[in-house]
Amino acid sequence: MVLxxxxxxxxxxxxxxxxxxxxxxxxxxxxxxxxLLGPNGAGKTTLIRIxxxxxxxxxxxxxxxxxxxxxxxxxxxxLIGYVPQEMSLWSDLTGYENMLIYSKIYGIPSNxxxxxxxxxxxxxxLREASNRxxxxxxxxxxxxxxxxxxxxHRPRLLVLDEPTIGLDPAAxxxxxxxxxxxxxxxxxxxxxxxxxxxxxxxxxxxxxLMNRGIIIARGKPEELKQNVEGDxxxxxxxxxxxxxSILNIFSEIEGxxxxxxxxxxxxxxxxxxxxxLPKILEKLFQNNLKIYEIKIHEATLDDVFxxxxxRRLSEEEYGRYREAITMRKMIRRGS
Length: 335
Ligand SMILES: Nc1ncnc2c1ncn2[C@@H]1O[C@H](COP(=O)(O)OP(=O)(O)O)[C@@H](O)[C@H]1O
Ligand SMILES: [Mg+2]
Description:
- This protein is an alpha/beta fold.
- The protein has two domains: 5-219, P-loop containing nucleotide triphosphate hydrolases (Rossmann fold), CATH 3.40.50.300; 231-298, Alpha-Beta Plaits (2-Layer Sandwich), CATH 3.30.70.
- It has helices spanning 44-51, 73-79, 95-105, 110-123, 139-150, 169-186, 197-203, 221-225, 246-251, 273-286, 301-309, 317-333; strands at 5-13, 19-28, 33-37, 59-64, 67-68, 80-83, 157-161, 189-194, 206-211, 214-219, 231-238, 256-262, 265-270, 290-297.
- It has a six-stranded mixed beta sheet, sandwiched between helices.
- Strand 9 (206-211) and strand 10 (214-219) form a beta hairpin.
- Helix 3 (95-105) packs across helix 4 and helix 5 (139-150) packs parallel to helix 6.
- The chain starts with a strand and ends with a helix.
- Bound molecules: adenosine-5'-diphosphate and magnesium ion (MG).
- Magnesium ion (MG) binds at residues 44-45, 85, 161-162.
C-alpha cells in the first residue's frame, strides 16, 4: 500500500544558517490520524511547509501518495487540504464569501460550488453564521471555516498546523469532533502538528515526538507512554500499626516499583494500574489496612518528553495566554 506521506532524510537549513530539520524520516499510513508533537521551535511548521510544497528542503525527499513534492508539486497540492497555523481568511468578508473565493482559487467547477460550500458549512455548524462577517466569528468558528475550505476539493490528506491553538477546551472539542467525523466518513488521512500533548494523546492513532529538528520517538500513544515508569500511585493508609511495615507488604506485590514510603504513605509506579490495583487491595485487606487517600497520576506524553529531553513539552499558562492574544490580533488584522 502506498504511504500517505513518506519523508526520508529531510534536512532544512534556512538562509542565515538555522538548521530547522536535521534528518527526518516519517511514514504516514493512509487512513490514520498522525500527530507531530513537539515544543515551539521543534521544526513542525517547517516540515509541514515542505510536505505542502510551500518550501523547498535542503536535502532528502518527501512523497505524498507516491508523488514527489519537489517534482510533482501540483499533483501533491491536489491531494492535500491544508490549514495553516496563522489565520488564512478575509475578515471583512462573510464566511460564505470566503468559501466562494477559495473555491475559485481551488478550481472547483462553478456548477458545483454552491452545493459543496453549503454542504460543508452545514457540516461544520456554520450555516447560520455564513452570511456574517468573519471579523465577528469566534476562534473556533474561524478554525471550522478554514477546515471547511481545506476540504472543498475532497483531499485524501488533511494537513493541519496547530489546529486548535488559542481555543478554549469546548471549542477544541468541537473542532476535533468535526475533523474526526469527516475523516471516518471519507477515509481521509490526517497529519497535524501540535504542542498540546493532550490533543495528540486523545486524537492521534500515531505520534512522532519532535525536538530540535529530529524525531526523538514515535509510536502509538500507549506505546510511547510505556517508555516511562508508568502510572504513579500514592496511597495514604489509615492507622498504621508500628509493627507493620508497609514496605514489607508492598514488596510482595508483583508489577509495582516502590518509589517512596513515608510513615503511612507509599508512592509506587506500575505499568498497568488496572491490573495491579486489585492485587494491592487484596493485600491491604489481608493486613487489615484501609486506604485513607488515593492519588493516581497516569503517565503522560509530557513525562515521555521530559525523560527523553530533560525539558517539558507543555508550556506554562503564560504561553497559552500569549497565543490567545496573538490569535486575536491576527483576527482583527484579518491577516
Ligand atoms: N523563515 C525562517 N527563517 C529562518 N529561520 C526560521 C524560519 N522559520 C522558522 N525558522 C526557525 O526554524 C526553527 C523551527 O521553526 P518552526 O518550523 O516554525 O518550528 P515549530 O513549528 O515546531 O514551532 C526555529 O528555530 C525557527 O526560529
Ligand atoms: Mg509551528
